[in-house]
Amino acid sequence: AEKLSSMKDMDWNDFLQRVCSLLDSTEKNTGTARSKLNLLHYLCTVAVRKEVASRLISSQLFPILIQQLRVAANWDLRAKVARVMGLLALHTSELGENVPVSEAIILLTELIRENFRNSKLKQCFLPALGELLYLIA
């Protein structure tokens, strides 16, 4: 996380491009899903740094996270994406106007409504929804 927060813009853009391309991959095999889960777990660990969280939430990563939350067939992936979004919202120090937070809130609300009886999923989505609401309040 320290290395990420001290990266130069060019290195940061390369890192972000690799992260986004892996998350945006449409391959449907087990290895890809496992790679995405591992990457999301890594993002959870680095999102606790304010500098990193602020840079990540303001980047093209946040819309890709929203897209993954919408299209991922694997519920583990959706839960981890929601966790990353919640951690980014919790630890960011600034929120730009271009960050699609309202879209994320609407999607999380819809997912909670659709899966109302599944308490495990609600436990995954509610914290992220709460952090996003607190961030914009």
UniProtKB/TrEMBL annotation:
Superkingdom of source: Eukaryota
KW Kinase (keyword) present: yes
InterPro entries the record matches: ARM-like, ARM-type_fold, ULK4
Sorted UniProt keywords: Kinase, Transferase
UniProt keyword annotation of Transferase present: yes
GO molecular function per UniProt: kinase activity
Name of the protein in its database record: ULK4 kinase
Protein source organism: Chordeiles acutipennis
Gene name of this polypeptide: Ulk4_0
